Amino acid sequence: MPKNTLNRIGAVSKYFVIAAALLVFIGWFLNTPPGLFGKADAIGYAVCHRIGERSFHIGSYQLPLCARCSGMYLGAVTGLVFQAIIGWKRFKIPHWSIIAVLIVFVAAFGIDGSNSYLYLLKQVSPGILPTIRNIYVPNNTLRLLTGSGMGLGMAIMLFPAFNQTVWSDGMDKPAIPGWKTFGLLLGIQVIFDLLVLTESPIVLYPLAITSSLGVWLLLTMVYSMVWVMIMGQDNKFTNVRQLWLPLLAGLTIALIQTAAIDALRYWLTGTWGAFPLGK
Question: What is the SS3 assignment for 130-163?
Answer without folding.
Answer: CCCCCCCCCCHHHHHHHHHHHHHHHHHHHHHHHH
